[in-house]
Amino acid sequence: MFSRIARPSLAVCSSARNFSSSSQNNAKVAVLGASGGIGQPLSLLLKNSHRVTHLSLYDVMHTPGVAADLSHISTKAKVTGHLGIDQLADAVKDADLILIPAGVPRKPGMTRDDLFNTNAGIVRDLCEVCAEVCPDAIMGIITNPVNPTVPIAEEVYKRKNAFNENKINIFGVTSLDVVRANTFVAELKGLDVDKINVPVIGGHSGVTIIPLPSQATPAVSFPQEDRTRLTERIQNAGTEVVEAKAGAGSATLSMAFAAARFAYKVLDALNGADNKVECAYVRSAKTPAAYFATPLLLGKNGVEKNLGIPKTIEYEAQLIENAMPELQSNIKKGIDFMSK
Ligand SMILES: NC(=O)C1=CN([C@@H]2O[C@H](COP(=O)(O)OP(=O)(O)OC[C@H]3O[C@@H](n4cnc5c(N)ncnc54)[C@H](O)[C@@H]3O)[C@@H](O)[C@H]2O)C=CC1
Ligand SMILES: O=C([O-])CC(=O)C(=O)O
Q1: Under a CB-based contact definition with an 8 Å cutoff, are residues 267 and 246 in contact?
Q2: Name one GO biological process term (predicted).
Q3: In this structure, what is the dihedral angle of CA atoms 11, 12, 13, 14, given to the nearest 10 degrees?
Q4: Which site in 20, 79, 88, 298 is 20 to 30 Å from 326, CA atoms measured?
Q5: Is residue 308 a known part of a binding site?
Q6: Distance in angstroms (rounded) separating the CA atoms of residues 336 and 340
Q7: Is the ipTM value over 0.90, yes or no?
Q8: How far is ligand 1, taken at its centre, from the CA of residue 38, in Å?
Q9: Does the annotation flag 118 for ligand binding?
Q10: Overall fold of domain 175-339
């Protein structure tokens, strides 16, 4: 079974070298954790995108079936399935973009930090291969807890001499916070959700999630009581889904939508499209925390320009201040994990 899967994936991947390019219509995207609750719908959205010519699916289970299923869809992306660590290098070779939703999700009563012990090692091991095989690929890490998994990834790249201090190509995907903020604000204000943009900065857990509705476009205003309720709903939205799923996992479909939104912007920017801006969690010189989500102008190498913390009102400035201790401690936990 194992060797039957290995051969075709090798064959396809050697020809996949030709796919690697900075053209949106000629991009190889690898999904690591492709068989999971996020991985499957995300892979479907990518298979449905004109931007992708090679969709490479990696997991420790079920990728032959997921790849066979998706490969029957009449869109142009070639689909390859890769199973187990021995096939990871082929899965990511020549990738333009790697998305990582591999790892365990929360159950009711757990915090994202409770996932650290399992997921930190998974991200480390995946990044070790990526650092060796495709250090320049853009990487979007979805695996929780995002606040420390992104520093872990960069520490791996440093150890493998694959780290480029002049370039930011490793992102924590926080687009779901923006998607939720847009949805909730549009609902509250009766606006067209397609036309609203609410920046969300900071990190991706509890108080480190900092929505900035004062900077929304179009402009919206709230009495303070509503602003507080909105902020808390966005901060707790992941838990809202975990509780509603009652033990069957956390957000998967909305996360797949959000990760696809992130991926499409990255791929469009790789193809030279201007003005592709997305909030994401990256190494940052713009705040006291070494990693911080802000609006980023995307380009051919990842972050073209960090647009920094937008203007804030006093309430939002206080949220930023409140978030710093937890965020800094989460980042330290990731870096300490790698120095053991
Ligand atoms: N950044 C964000 O906004 C969000 C992050 N998440 C996180 O995404 C992660 C995945 O969530 P789900 O897809 O719901 O979980 P899931 O359990 O449904 O899927 C995870 C997949 O990862 C695979 N996997 C486990 N170890 C692996 C390894 N070493 N290499 C490759 N694949 C491996 C599993 O086989 C499984 O297919 C969780 O950590 C969750 O907390 C979830 C929602 C939002
Ligand atoms: O809450 C979770 O565990 C999953 C997640 O990150 C989210 O839905 O924002």
Answers
A1: no
A2: tricarboxylic acid cycle
A3: 50
A4: 298
A5: no
A6: 7
A7: yes
A8: 7
A9: no
A10: L-2-Hydroxyisocaproate Dehydrogenase; Chain A, domain 2 (3.90.110)
